[in-house]
Each structure stands twice: as C-alpha cells, then as structure tokens.
Amino acid sequence: MFGVPYMYTQSRIFKARLDFLREQYNIQPNEFITFDAMRHAAQCLGRAIRGKSDYGIMVLADKRYARADKRSKLPSWIQSQLQDAFVNLSTEEAVQASRRFLRLMGQPFNKEDQLGLALLTREHVAKLVAQNQASSLRGANLLGPALPVGLPSTVSVGPGQLTSGTTALPRVISTSTMLH
C-alpha cells in the first residue's frame, strides 16, 4: 500500500460528520481522520487474505505507518504481524524479507497434517495454559522434562506466521522508501 488513504477533508458532508463527532462524542477531528484512514488501509490490506489457506505480503510503503499512533489504529490481527524488525526497511531489505517469507510459505504440505481443530474448547485452552506455565517453570528448572498434554500438532506458531489448521496470517512489512 502506497501512502495513507486519507479522505478528502474539504467536503461539506465530511465536515458536518466531524462537527457531529466533536459535539456529540468529543472525538477530535484529527483522531477520527486518522482512524478512518487506518480503517480504509486495513480493509485494503485484508484483501490479501481471502480464505483459510491464503497467505500474502502486505507492504506499507509510507513512513507514517512506522509511527505508533498510526499503527495503534490498525486491527490487532495486522498489529500482531507487524514486527519491529520489519519496520522502516529499505527496499532491498523488504525484498529479501519477502523472498524468505514466500520461500517458507511455498513449501509443499501434506493435507492430513493441516487437518485439526478449527476452534479451541475451554478444555484445550486450559491445557495450553497449563503447558505454557509448565514450560515457564521448566525453563527455571523447577519441573522435570515436558509431559505431552494431548493437543493436536496442527495448532502451531512459527516464525513469521500464525497457523491454526490451514490459516496463515501474512507477514506485514513497513518500509519508508518508495518501491520502484
């Protein structure tokens, strides 16, 4: 995405909306304008993921996306993938990161390995919490070796991706240089 999709602010209708939000809800015009632009950006970025097995690269090619106040207005599913290591990259660094991601995601997979839970139950969440707590204690040498908890192997978190079944979220790259 090149630039930030701000609306035309000189429209009478838009100005009336800003006045209404300020008077009724005490929302400052700049706050709403930024929020609205980030909402439009998120909608555009979300088009890269259309289904469970889709993956993609979202390039935010504008230095304004590096600012915390802008990024905080993006949805959490985008924020969670926008890692500090991928902010303010040069064009060459963004291309290299994209190549690595596509090479990783382009690996063949066995469909049977991708089948599993689509939704975690409370029992599964409790087991995950217990497993994480046990891992923390084991890291401090307070427990012995790990014990299996019976969770399916298809729910996993890997570098640059978050998967559950066949869902893969995209890697988000923010670069302050324009791509040619």
Q: End-to-end span in angstroms?
A: 13 Å
The computed structural class is alpha/beta
Following the backbone from N to C, one meets helices and strands in this order, namely: HHEHHEHHHEEEE
- Lateral arrangement of strands in the main beta sheet: 1-6-2
Strand content range = 5-15%
State the share of residues found in helices, binned by percent. Answer: 40-55%
The overall number of domains is 2
Total strand count, please?
6
Could you tell me the mean pLDDT?
77
Which ranges are low-confidence, i.e. pLDDT below 50, for 5 or more consecutive residues?
A: 141-169, 176-180
**Count of helical regions:** 7
- How much is the radius of gyration in Å? 21 Å
Largest sheet: 3 strands, parallel
Oligomer: single chain
Shape: extended
Write up this protein.
This is ATP-dependent helicase C-terminal domain-containing protein. One of its GO terms (molecular function) is DNA helicase activity. Residues 1-67 form the ATP-dependent helicase C-terminal domain. It holds the Pfam family Helicase_C_2. InterPro entries: ATP-dep_Helicase_C, DinG/Rad3-like, P-loop_NTPase, RAD3/XPD. With 180 residues, the protein is α/β, with parallel strands linked by helices. It folds into two domains: 12-117 and 152-175, no CATH class; 122-149. 43% of the residues lie in helices and 12% in strands. It contains seven helices and six strands; from the N terminus they run H-H-E-H-H-E-H-H-H-E-E-E-E. It has a three-stranded parallel sheet, with helices on one face. A hairpin with a 2-residue loop joins strand 4 (161-164) and strand 5 (167-168). The longest helix is centred in the N-terminal third of the chain and has 18 residues, at 29-46. Mean pLDDT is 77; it is low at 141-169 and 176-180.
